[in-house]
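User: quick one
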Amino acid sequence: MPEKGGLVDSKKMRSKRHGPIRVTLPVSVASDLEKLERALANASRVVEERDGHSGWHGGFMQVREFVIDPASLEVTEAAYPQ
Amino acid sequence: MRLPEVGVGVTWFAGMEPMLQANAELVDVLEIEPQTLWRRQPHARTIAIDTAALEAVQRQQHAKLVHSVGLPVGGTVPPRADDVELLSTVALELETPWLSEHLSFNCVEDESGTWHTGSLLPPRQTLAGVEAAVASIHALSARVPVPVAIETGVSYLQPRGDELPDGEFVGRVAEAADCGILLDLHNVWTNHQNGRQPLGDYIDQLPLERVWELHVAGGYYHRGFWLHANSGEVPAEVLELAARIVPRLVNLKAIIFELFPSHIPQLGARMFQSQMDSLHRVWDRRGGTAVRKTCVRSDPPEPDPAPSPKEWERTLACLTVHKRCDSPLATELRKDRGMAVIREMVEKLRGSMVVRTLRLSSRLIILERGTAYLEQLLATFWRTYPPQAFALEEAEAFAAFLCEEKPYVPFLGEVLEYDRAVIAVALDGEERSIAFGADPLPLLRALGAGRRPTEITTGEFEIRLTPDLVNSQAVLPVM
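Assistant: Done. Structure below.
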């Protein structure tokens, strides 16, 4: 019998650092694992850069939205998240 | 019946355009499996034709032949009217001169309803079986706009003393239904290799003037059986058989090399060209004169021996999908070594549907718990959930199973939701959002690259999946 348990393992997680973040991902990128990997690497870099510059603390911020471009896979932060 | 000669060709798959351009002189015709153009609508019980996928086929300049793989006509359950309508539409859109289907069965009707067997299974080869198949072929041919040919099937079961020989069964069905024959030489050779009817006897029992089309393909040995697998190089003996028989096929109109796309890299471009060259040489041997001959026939017992075709189909299907069945026939069939091969092939197909559809979830399970654990989960799933005809349904069933089973796999719930959402957005073009309690960027990135996710930060995250131009076949494998 397979071992049963919760679907999420708290031991694998680091402590909470981020506030609400939304990433908009075109499905053409999501369905192509190579593109997905590149796009998410770009997104991680941009999120980290923004965090570093703003000294951001999630509790006081609104949702931040990062948008992935399906052609270039470049990531921009939306000025006014929807 | 006068049908056009369409020549030598290959099975179509999405994305093969560069291969066709590189081999423009070698490919005259594309064989299209219409079910690869069908999509089960998410959250609906209806199937629709993927217009973009259909148009991609229509753009090819080659002749097209429609070869159905989901509405077999060898059993007692005739093809569903809705499915036949879709098949008709594809036949008209692609202007196929004829269409073909398998002389097998894949559905069973019993007190629990109609259910899918997970694969094409061999029919009961008696006179009652002939009658059932003829009724199914008539039900199909009455509702499609072109003539129908039946494909000769493969069977891993040992031949039975109470049945008609393979070739005679096909011959009797084709003559009684007045239809064409798609002679799959690799299937016939596979049956011969595995101890069923000798090739020469099989051919002698066929009405060769009804053969409109030949299939050739590759396979491999597994557990002492030669498998029909469309897996690459055609065995030399099958090509030799084709060269010998083609001059006798006075109504031959096409030869198709069946090949699954996943085996193309292994086959290689040069070998593909060499195989197609060989098939053109075989094709050039056609044009023999008709020799009228009487097909060899046995003297089948009257009345028809038990089990009936219905009982045969139900028993074989139950054993294939692990449903309980305690009849004497079930006891007999369990002793047949071919039964394990049939079951294994169905399970391999089901497993590939899950792994290719729930891609990141499958990877996550393997990376966190190992391949053996995923196989263990799948084995439990196969015993509790019946097979589904479509990859999307099979994947949905496995996702439901995982939600019930709650295996210990970190982040599985969210990754599963993500996988399902990607498919749904690709299919219906509606935006979806998935909430994550852990940072999806390193999580999905690691899975996309085949790495085990580590040190994932918690927080409130959301992935918003938006529709854009995507080939739905890229996210959803066919049946």
